[in-house]
Amino acid sequence: MVLGFGAWYVATQAHVEAELSRLLPEGTTPTERLLLTELRTGTTGRLILMALEGGDADLLAGASKQLAAWMRNSGAFHYVGNGEQPWTQEERERLFQHRYLLSPSVQESTFSQDHLRTSLEQRLSELASPLSPMVKGLIPADPTGEFMKILQTWMTWTAPTRHQGVWFSSDLRRALLLAETKAAGFDMDAQGRIQGQIRETLSRLAGAPTGVAPIQVVMTGPSVIAVEMQQTIQDEAWRLSLWATLLVTTFLFVSYGSVSILALSLVPLTSAIVAGIVAVDLVFGFIHGMTLAFGITLLGVVDDYPIHLFSHLTRESRAPAVMKEIWPTMRLGVVATALGFSALLLSGFPGLSQLGLFAIVGLFTAACVTRWVLPHLVPTGFQARREGLHVARLFDTLTKARLVVPLGVVLAIGSFVWSDTPLWELDIANLSPISTEMKVRDQALRNELGVPDVRDLIVVEGSSEEEVLQRSEAVALALESFMAKGELSGYDFAARYLPSRKTQQLRQGALPDRETLERNLTSTLKGLPFKASLFQPFLDAIGKAKAQEPVDSQTFRGTALALKLDSLLFMREGRWVAVVPLRGVADRSKFRELLTPWRSQEVSYLDLKEESNQMVAAYRNEALGLLGWGALSIGIVLLVGLRDPVTVLRVMLPIGSAIVVVAAVLHALGERFSLFHIASVLLVIGLGLDYALFFNRRHGTLAERGRTVYGLVVCSTTTVLVFGVLTLSQIPVLRAIGMTAALGSLACLLFASLLAEDTLHAA
Amino acid sequence: MSLAETSSQTERDGGSSAWNVERLIDNLAKNRQAEARFEETAFSTLLTEPLKTQGILRFTSPSILEKHVTAPQDERYVVEGDTILFESKASGMNGTLSLQEYPVLRAFVEAFRSTLANDVVTLRRFFNMTLQGEPRRWVLILLPVDNAMQKVVKSIRFSGEEARVKSIEVLAPDGDRTVMVITTGAR
Fold first, then answer.
1. First and final CA of chain A: distance in angstroms?
2. CB-CB: which of B48, B88, B91 is closest to A529?
3. Closest Cα of chain B to A160: distance in Å?
4. pLDDT value, residue A17
5. Which CATH number covers residue B123?
6. Is residue B40 in some structural domain?
7. Which SS3 state, helix, strand or coil, does residue A581 take?
8. Is A763 exposed, middle or buried, given 0-12, 13-18 or 19+ CB atoms closer than 10 A?
9. How close is the nearest chain B Cα to the Cα of A525, in Å?
10. CB contact under 8 A, A124 and B51
């Protein structure tokens, strides 16, 4: 009934969280916090890049327009770009009004006779060109061409080719779109929903011409990849666990020859999972999907508990009595394993704490269910097969070869010392389950749309908006010089669109008074065929601009530009922050060096990839430390429980040796270790404790020992089967867990039997 | 040749007549040459005197049109499909524009390109056409249909003799006017 209630709670109340960032630590340095903010809410994470393909260019252009219109109306996007209308009429007018404050080329010399002359000659040649209908309206009020200069400066990227006004790949086979969702990039539920809607809308639109192949959409971007990744992991985990279940069920059926026993063996694991979910949800308010996945892995150890019980049953014995007999050994294993897992609980990382709580609650639940519930459900008269005796004898002969263990450990250590392969996986990219195909697709679309992956950025901080803008303008000067040296191919920053008040005031100061301007203009116009009073609007505009209120973020409210500004300039925890994304940093260490004179408390350079790699390393180190503390506390508990240091050593030694040897084997196979391996090592410790404790149990008879050994072989085989299947996975995470756990289980069993006390022979 | 005496004939009574818009454009296309020299004079309301340019027009089937200005400054404008590529050696400016984004330019481009490409269907989509004169000396007048185009182009007049265009005059509603005289080629 408790199980039923738990299942109900899980189904209706538990909040399974998919957002990865909820598992990340808060971050201690401001840079770390910024990185996390960027990950959680940043524009880069919210971009969706799309390509429509599978039709002729006209059809694709039509689909692009319809899809973009739907997306703009859906309210789910901050921005949808497909090449239509770079600026609306209203936006153009707003820019035009403020051209003398926004144009980077406004300075005193702009209005000198020489410069005016050059400008006017340029306007003349424009009037003679086929483009004259586009520009002639601007000439009387803007003869120096500031408006066009603003538009040019703001074009920080080369837009893709256009056909019928929408973006296309250069071969016109793919219509391109770019969108920024309102939902955060790591809000997988929302992102998945949005992507589904896009596909659905397109299939509805593309339904129009019959007999034509439907238009396909190719999507990429961090959120798309994340959603697909989750899907892949789920699919793969589902497929593999199906195989594993099938194999284990068959194996257990062959081992015990009873369907009801088979069903009963699942009870402790199921209750453990349910209890774990309920506990984590009650304490943390949500449970992360990753916690669930890893947690269930860790709980794999509890599947051994019912197997011990079943293996020790004989035709004469009654299950509750048998349970009572093996309980002390099992209890010690449970407590020690729980202690090992509790190290996770105490970590500062929300993800690891969740995992620890989940595993510990599950462990105790499974133990209690096995101890007090299961024995009453086992059909009387059930008996395990008799092969136990043969297996036991076989294992006893193994003890003669116990030298294998120290030899293996020495070899393992040797292989570590002499190996050139890096021990740890430091590149987060190699840990991700993103397929090569997905990476290639992402890169191709990014190139076509001209939106590179932002990896490098400069963060400028300050106590006010103005201070940050001024500071970033100073940094931009340095960046310009780096660009000239070829160290950088481009950058973007808020002050380009919203210059600091100081800069705007400087520009206002550079504007000439009416008298001077009129004089310069009159003498410039001599010999040029412009009509005399033509530039009256220009004189008025300069006069107005001198007295104009400076442009602020309010000026752009409600425009696409405002959205861009929001992502480049924002307030965080009372501090103003400007983000300067960099493009094409040639040499990162050299760039860091070049930037040294500009770096300070307020200006920092971030290599996002490096930062996230460091974060992963920090996570790993924390886990490694916890592993050490876990091992130590397990030793203490064993000492208390067994009251014999030699036996403690007998229990601990095979596990320690197994871990070292398994690590060496994996290393020799070219695996680099990551957090996932460490998590799996925790499982191996749990399993190993179980094996070693049972091997070192005092046995009365050969038959009893046979049953114990038989049980352990069954336990280990199920583990090897389950995790062996995982090693077939294409996903690095699953493979890492599978290899470590399968090899670990095998090695633990083998070493435990090799090092077991030769009780029977002694007796 | 009796119909030649008729001074004016609109496109609506084309059909079976021997001399009509279709016939003229077909003739022009057949006798079109790959290159033609031009001299263009732009009269602008902003200016006190006209601006003169000269250069070469090139047309490559089916629809690539190039205007290469050689004097006073070297500039090139190439229309291909939906885009206009422009580059100016003097000012170092270059780039591309989409005709979709600038419907204003579309009127000009289609008038030239469709006439040269014998594409009467496209011409009719953008213009009401009137043919005046006789085969020996004729004037083809194009009036834009679209409202947005009417704001920048009042009319485009092609004048010619036989299968040869002699001049193209574009008139804007604000009184601006360009006259392109084709001196050689396009016979």
1. 47
2. B48
3. 10
4. 53
5. 2.50.20.10
6. yes
7. strand
8. exposed
9. 11
10. yes
Nearest in space to B182 (alpha carbons), one of B31, B36, B10: B36
Of the partner residues B46, B75, B77, the one whose CB lies closest to the CB of residue A136 = B46
pLDDT at position A212 is 58
- CB burial of residue A197 (10 Å; 0-12, 13-18, 19+): middle
- Number of domains, chain A: 3
Please, are residues A207 and A55 in contact by the beta-carbon 8 Å criterion? Answer: no
Q: How far apart are CA A259 and CA A255, in angstroms?
A: 11
Question: Which pTM does this prediction carry?
Answer: 0.68
Domain for residue A389, yes or no? yes
Instruction: Give dist(CA A269, CA A144) in Å, integer.
Output: 77
Please indicate, yes or no, if residue A2 is contained in any of the structural domains.
no
Mark which of A180, A205, A224 sits at the end of a domain: A224
**How does pLDDT run across A672-693, given as a tens digit for each residue?**
887 778 877 877 888 888 888 8
Token pair of A335, please?
Answer: 């407590």
The label of the residue with tokens 């193209």 reads B168
Q: Is A536 exposed, middle or buried (0-12, 13-18, 19+ CB in 10 A)?
A: exposed
Subunit contact B47:A132, Cβ cutoff 8 A: no
Structure tokens at B169: 């005059």
Burial zone of A310 (CB within 10 Å; 0-12 exposed, 13-18 middle, 19+ buried): buried
- Mark yes or no for CB contact A128/B42 under 8 Å: yes
Interface TM-score (ipTM) > 0.90: no
**B39 CB within 8 Å of a chain A CB:** no
* B1 within a domain of the structure (yes/no): no
Instruction: Indicate the length of chain A as a whole number.
Output: 763
Per the document, the length of chain B is 187
CA distance A297 to chain B (A): 57
Asked if A647 and A676 sit in the same domain, the reply is: yes
User: Residue A556: inside a domain, yes or no?
Assistant: yes
Contact A508, A546 (CB under 8 A): yes
Q: Which of A431, A439, A437 has the alpha carbon at shortest distance from A734?
A: A431
* Consecutive H or E run containing A321: helix A319-345
Residues of A in contact with B86 (CB under 8 A): 129, 131
Structural domain range at position A79: 32-224
Phi, psi of B73 (to 5 degrees): -130, 150
Measured between alpha carbons, how far is A73 from A50 in angstroms, rounded to an integer? 18
Q: In total, how many domains does chain B have?
A: 1
Query: Domain range holding B114?
Result: 7-52+103-185
Q: Which residues contact B165 (CB under 8 A, 6 or more apart)?
A: B28, B115, B158, B159, B182, B186
Task: Report yes or no on A3 lying in a domain.
Answer: no
Q: Distance (Å, rounded) from C-alpha A749 to C-alpha A740?
A: 14
Question: What is the pLDDT at residue A371?
Answer: 93
Task: Select from B42, B98, B104 the Cβ nearest to the Cβ of A127.
Answer: B42
A133 closest CB neighbour out of B73, B83, B105: B105
Give A702: exposed, middle or buried? Use CB within 10 Å, 0-12, 13-18, 19+.
middle
CA separation, residue A157 to residues A448, A479, A494, B95 (Å): 11, 17, 15, 13
Q: Do residue A577 and residue A708 come from a single domain?
A: no
Those residues whose C-beta lies under 8 Å from the C-beta of residue A8, and which sit 6 or more positions away, are none
Residue B178 lies in a domain: yes
Residue B19 lies in a domain: yes
At B86 the three-state DSSP class reads strand
Per-residue model confidence (pLDDT) at position B81: 77
